[in-house]
Every structure is written in C-alpha cells, then in structure tokens.
Design goal:
Elements lengths: L9 H30 L7 E2 L7 E2 L12 H4 L1 H13 L6 H14 L1 E4 L2 E4 L2 H12 L4
Antiparallel strand pairs: 1-2, 3-4
Helix pairs in contact: 1-3, 1-5, 4-5
Length: 136
C-alpha cells in the first residue's frame, strides 16, 4: 500500500498526534484559566464565613433582583457551574469552549445538564476577560 497516495506518512501521523496532545494541553489550560478568573471574582459585599460554596453573608442591599440562590453570589459555586458546563463539551477544541463562553455571556446564565444557573456580573466580566484573549 502506498500511504503517500492518501497524504499519510509516518511523519504526518506523528505530527498529528503531537498536535492533538498540544491542543489537549491548551484546552485544559483554557478551562483552568476560566475557572481561576471566576474563582478570583467575588461579588461586592459578600462576606465569607468560611471557604465553601454556600458559607457567606450577602447584605440585603446587595440582593440583585431578589435572586436568593447561593450559586449567584458565591464565586466557588459560579466556578463549579461554569466548570461543569465546560466539562460537558464533547469536542476538545478551543472553538467549542469559546462558543460555550460566548453563549454564557449572551444569555447571562449557564446550563448544566437541564438546569440553568444565572451568572453574576462579576463572573460575566471574568469570562469576558478570557474571551478578550481571542482578540475580536
């Protein structure tokens, strides 16, 4: 069999394997960057009692639109839902992650499975910072 007839050679297969590994590392790094930026983005006025997704106080003056879900005010909970949504992406490509992040910003929420969670403005800003790395 003449592998060059189909554009396949040992070198091209090795290079493709190397590129897939590099892409996997890039995608993993991108997911970690998103989670890190969101984790560093606490809502103003939130006082942590201990580090956990629902151990904090929110002053009455900070309640946004009567949203009483802890996921909205907790950066740890926001990291959890954003991370789970990114983990659901079947494609390992950067484009798929970008589209998911764009959707989160446009809809101001994230859907994990069949449950939708609102994203707070601080989380949306953090995701926006990561999207700005794409340069458009």
């Amino acid at each position: 069999m003449d592998e060059t007839e189909f554009g396949i050679s040992k070198d091209s297969l090795r290079r493709a394997d190397e590129l897939e590994r590099e892409l996997g590392e890039l995608v993993s790094g991108l997911r970690c960057l998103v989670e890190s930026r969101v984790r560093q983005s606490d809502m103003p006025g939130v006082t942590w009692l201990s580090r956990g997704p629902d151990c904090f106080l929110v002053p009455f003056s900070q309640l946004v639109g009567w949203n009483l879900t802890p996921e909205y005010y907790s950066s740890e909970a926001q990291v959890d839902v954003v991370g789970r949504a990114l983990a659901e992406i079947r494609s390992c490509g950067v484009g798929a992650i970008r589209r998911k992040l764009d959707t989160m910003v446009l809809e101001r929420r994230v859907t994990v499975g069949r449950v939708s969670y609102p994203l707070n403005p601080v989380t949306l800003d953090a995701i926006g910072e990561v999207l700005s790395l794409f340069g458009e």
